[in-house]
Amino acid sequence: MEKTSLSILKQYWGYEKFRPLQEEIIHEVLLGKDTLALMPTGGGKSLCFQVPSLLSDGICIVISPLIALMKDQVENLRKRNIPAIAIFSGMSAREVDIALDNCIFGNIKFLYLAPERLYSDLVQERIRHMKVNLFAIDEAHCISQWGYDFRPSYLELIKLRELHSNVPFLALTATATPRVVTDIQEKLGFKEENVLSKSFRRENLGYMVFNEENKMGRMLRVIKKMGGTGIVYVRNRRETQEVARYLLNHGVPADFYHAGLEMSVRNKKQEDWTKNHTRVIVATNAFGMGIDKADVRFVIHLDIPDSLEAYYQEAGRAGRDEKKAYPVLLYQQADRDDLWENIESSFPDFAFIQHCYHYLCNHFQIAVGAGQGLTFDFDVVDFSKKYKLELAKTLSALKFLERDKWLSLLEAVYIPARFKFEVGFQELYKFQVSSVAYDNLVKAILRLYGGVFDYFVPINEFELARKVGKSVDEVIHMLKMMQQYEMGTYLGKTDKPQLQFLQARVDYKNLYIDMQFIAARKAFKQEQVKAIYHYLDTKDCRSIALQQYFGEDTKEPCGVCDLCVTRDFRKNEHKKIVKEIQQVLLSRAMTLHELIDTLTVGKEDRRLEVLRELLDTEQVLLKDNLYSWPVF
C-alpha cells in the first residue's frame, strides 16, 4: 500500500485528519518548493516537516533556537519509534562526532540542531555527506533583523543552501510582519516567493487591556472570575516571587518561574502547573516556549511586553483547546514611559561594547591572538556584577558582539550524565574478571541502559548507586576511574549557559562593530514600541489592531475583546435608555431633574448623553423647560 501524508499521520500520531493549513504546507514541501509557513502558536507546525520527511528518503535537519523544545520533540519522536537526535551546547566533541556519524551511516530521520552549530566547519562538512530531504527552520523570524527576536546565528543558515542546493527549506513562524516575511525569504535564498499563512485572528481569544492603578487587585479579580489555570507574565525575577506570594496569600494556588532557577526546579514547577497541581504560574518570558497545555484560560501581563510580536506569542498560549480564553494586559502610564526609556539601555554605545569585550576576554584569561574556538560556562549576571556593568546593556552588547561573529552565546540546558563503553564486550568481560570491584557496576549499566556500546546514553548516578549498594560519590568516582582505564567515557551532568569565542582575541581598540546596524535596530525598536502604544490606545478592536500590524487587511470586529464588549454593551444600553425615555415621556412631559431621576437604566452621565442625542435628532422636544416625546 502506497504511503500518503494522511496514512503517515494516522500511523504515527493517530489523527484522522490534519489541522487547517497543515496539508497545504506538506503538499508544497513534497513538491520540493521552498515554503514559508505562518501559523499561530499551537497550530501544529512540527507536523508540517515531520510528515513529509517520513514520506521521503533521507534525513530532515531541523534548526531551532529552543533547546528544551528540541529535546521534547526528539523524545516524542522516539516514543513513536521514529529515530531522532539533537545536537546542542553542553555536548562533548565525541558525542557530537558519534551523533553526526549516525546521521550519515545510520537510520536517523530527524537531526535537530541549534543554529550556533553551523559556525563549525566540521558540522558543515558532515552535513554535506548526509542525504538530506528537507531543512526545517523553526522560529524563522529570528533570521530577520526586523524580527522581534533577531538571532545573529540564524544568518549562518544560508550555508545549508550551499551544502545542498536542491533541498527545499520550510521556514516556520507564528509571528511575522510583511517586512519580516520578505526578509526571511531573502535571507534563506528562496528560489521563488512562497508563503502560506493562517489568519492571525484567534476567534476564541477575548483580548483585554486596562489602564489600572491597582494592577494586583485587578489581577486577583480577573483570576477569581475566570476560573481554570493561567499564566501571569512579569518583567523580572524578583516580581515573579512577589506576585506568586501575593496570590498565595489570597488563596490562589500559585508558583513562580524564571531562568535563574536550577533546571530540575524549573521542570518540577512546570510539571505541577501542567498537571493542574498549581493553578497559576507567575513567570518571566523564559516560560512557555514549547509548552503544549491546551486548557489555559487566561494569560495576564502585569508589564507591557517589548513588542506586539512577543505579546501575540505569549497571549497565544491561552485557549489552545479552542474554548473561550482571555489574554489580559494591565498597565499604568509609568509602564509606558519605562518602555520607551528601556530602548536606551538596549542599545549601548561603541565604547561600552569595547569595554564589555575587553572585560570578557580578561574574565576568561584569554591573551591577545588566542581563544578562537574556546567554549566556557558563562553566567552573565555574575559577569555583569563582577565588572559593575548594567545587565540590560551587557546582554545587548553581547548580542551585537555575536552579530559581528566575535562570539556565540548558547542558552542554558540541562543535560544528564552520559556514559559509553569504549571497548567491545569481550574486553569488557576481561576487565570485570580482573577488576572484581567494578563487576556489579558494569552489570548494572548493561542491565539498565541499552545501546551503551554504540553511543552515549543518559545515566542516573543515583539509580546506579541504589543498584550496587554504594554512595553516589563512590559511583561517580568509579565511573571516572573506568574512564582512566579507557574502558568507557563518563560525562557529568551540566546545567549552565555557555559562551564560545569565534575569533582570536584582538585589542579592544581594534574591535569592529557595525554601528550602522545598531542604529537601524534602535530605530526599528522605536517603531515596535509605537506599535504597542497604538494597540493600547486603539478605540476600534484589539484583534483588528493585531491583525493589521501583521499585514492582514480586515475591518471585521472580533466581538469578544474589551472594546467590542464595551461597544456592544453601550449599544444595548443606549437602546434600553431610549426605549425607557420614550415610555416615560409618552405618559407626560417632565423637567430634566424629574426625567433623569425617573430613569432606571444606566448611570446619570450616560442618561444625559443619550438625552442630548435625542434632542439633537429632534426625537425629544424641549419647551418651557419640559421634555416631551412628540406624537405624530
TrEMBL record:
Keyword annotations of the record: ATP-binding, DNA-binding, Helicase, Hydrolase, Isomerase, Metal-binding, Nucleotide-binding
Leader sequence segment: none
UniProt keyword annotation of Thylakoid present: no
Transmembrane segments: none
Catalytic activity: Couples ATP hydrolysis with the unwinding of duplex DNA by translocating in the 3'-5' direction
Enzyme class, spelled out: isomerase
Protein known as: ATP-dependent DNA helicase RecQ
The species this protein was found in: Sphingobacterium hotanense
Organism lineage string: Bacteria, Pseudomonadati, Bacteroidota, Sphingobacteriia, Sphingobacteriales
